[in-house]
Amino acid sequence: xxxxxxxxxxxxxxxxxxxxxxxxxxxxxxxxxxxxxxxxxxxxxxxxxxxxxxxxxxxxxxxxxxxxxxxxxxxxxxxxxx
Length: 82
Hints:
- With 82 residues, the chain is mainly alpha-helical.
- The chain contains five helices and no strands.
- The longest helix is centred in the C-terminal third of the chain and has 18 residues, at 61-78.
- The protein is globular and about 40 Å long.
């Protein structure tokens, strides 16, 4: 499990102020990380809820495209397509 996924799981499991703090941690992680590393971490996520949380975090255009691709991939895997 990547650091990005760990931060996203924390955000998914919290509410209120703790949730906002967890989202800010994801934002900070993305800001200090190389884009290539974030892309690699997104490609490892297998949970649709965590992919959806990325939209709350806010992503660059490139990262949005990777998140969309991964979301579609997860959906296809769930349907037995991959």
